[in-house]
Amino acid sequence: MTAVPTGMTTAPTADLHLHTTFSDGTETPERVLEMVQQAGLSAVAMTDHDTVDGMARSAAAAAARGIELIPGIEMSSCSRQGIEVHLLGFFFDLEHPALTRHLAEQKARRVERVHETVKRLQRVGVTIRAEEVLQLAGEGTVGRPHVARVLLKHGYISTFSEAFSRYIGTNNPGFVPGSPLSPAHVIGVLRAAGGIPVLAHPIYLKCDPLIDELVQDGLLGLEVYHACHPPETVRHYERIADRLKLLKTGGSDFHGDVKEGQPIGSVKIPYALVEALKQWKTTSVS
Ligand code: AMP
Ligand code: ZN
Ligand code: FE
Ligand code: FE
Questions:
Q1: At 68, which helix (H) or strand (E)?
Q2: What's the whole-number average pLDDT of the chain?
Q3: Which ligand is nearest to the CA of 161?
Q4: pLDDT at position 62 over 70
Q5: pTM attached to this predicted model
Q6: If you count DSSP H runs as helices and E runs as strands, how many of each does the chain have, helices first?
């Protein structure tokens, strides 16, 4: 699953998909950067869900450790087919007005969604309080993992992933879609902010024709390397990225101790892929 061997290499590497307490990760930006340094990575992108609120703290912690921080985000959208599509964005203007507006709306929508989720869970005999979920999320964007942690705490489930197979996964009784907005819309917001939109973890979509559609909508990259992509899957998406002339990115999708098997350092992409993103920025501006 590792893009390059972790052993003796001294060539610079990057992880372009990490979550912190500013969304559904369990570790603070400072702790994540400490772990990033221990893993020997040179560059990272924090990609919290629908927020850039953690970026200032990440930037300070990264600077103190001599690690390059790339502006990043993971944005939710929903395709025509009802498939949840996550779009990573890199190298965008953090203060772009249309993006700022979009993120404020999405943050509020996520709070509404928790109230709706709690209502739906009540109908199947699960009684948790929305306030407890929102409190757990704190200042970060709230998401289903916060609901899962409350379900776990109150004994409705015995493992974190059970929340997604019984209660809040797609087609479960407590499922509420994350965003009504199309991938095309989100790609447009990111491009307007000067960002590079990249389709996250394509393995979760299981719908390759959708990638072609997203390219028509302005998609520029594919997350070829991911902790959940075994080697044959990586080769599969490398071929698709080459065919569609997409930039290639990758990362661990680290969330802390709630998600097993995706530690920091589990995916290390060559720094040359970061340079390719920068190159795209340079040539697109001129
Ligand atoms: P949300 O943005 O609120 O829809 O939540 C999406 C997040 O939930 C993902 O980024 C994962 O962290 C987590 N998630 C989704 N499906 C699963 C699953 N089957 N098992 C564990 N975590 C999941
Ligand atoms: Zn997440
Ligand atoms: Fe995701
Ligand atoms: Fe993610």
A1: strand 68-70
A2: 95
A3: 1
A4: yes
A5: 0.95
A6: 10, 9
pLDDT above 50 (res 286): no
Beta bridge partners, 167, equal none
Element (H, E) at 44: strand 43-46
234 CB contacts (<8 Å, ≥6 apart)? 1, 3, 224, 225
Q: What is the pLDDT of residue 9?
A: 53
**What SS3 class is residue 26?**
coil
The DSSP letter of residue 162 is: H
**Per-residue confidence band for 1, with pLDDT thresholds at 50, 70 and 90:** very low
> In Å, how far are 11, 39, 103, 116, 276 from 224, measured between CA atoms?
20, 21, 26, 34, 14
Which residue in the block uniquely carries the two structure tokens 């996550």? 86
Residue 168 CA to ligand 3 center (angstroms) comes to 15
CA atoms within 13 A on the CB side of 246: 29
| Model confidence at 224: pLDDT above 70 | yes
Q: Which ligand sits closest to the CA of 76?
A: 1
Closest-CA residue, ligand 1 atom 13, reads 145
